[in-house]
Amino acid sequence: MTLEKVIEQEEQLQFDTFDHEIALEIAKEISDYVKQHYPKPVGIQIYYNEKVILHYLMDGRKESPWLDRKTRTVLDSGHSSLWTFYKSESEDRYKEWQTDERYAVCGGGFPIIEKGIVKGAICVSGLDHQDDHDIIIQVLKKRMAL
User: Fold this and answer.
1) Does the model's pTM come out above 0.85?
2) 111 SS3 class
């Protein structure tokens, strides 16, 4: 994965409209995808219009701060948390986030971009951070038929 690829994903995987029903469908699709492709459970959080609208822990997944940290990273950067991971190598702002326990400078948080505006975040946590990111991408690509 490269920064350029992440930017391309953010440009391609945007919503014309988003609502709570779509969030529920995406969470179910993520859960099903994880069950098919990974041996470990994940946590899923979807934040939209200034509130958490969905928080789900698959059976066997314990609560952790990572979902909130990934959400904050997406909202404060306006990009995926994997984007901040790549940017932390060159930009001091994101480098500082690496030691700030409010943020997650790693993959697994992806922006909900509705009509060009970041309105929330879809977050997955529990696997390798690249896998957490890839799960969201695979589900959104299938959903948007890309």
Assistant:
1) yes
2) strand
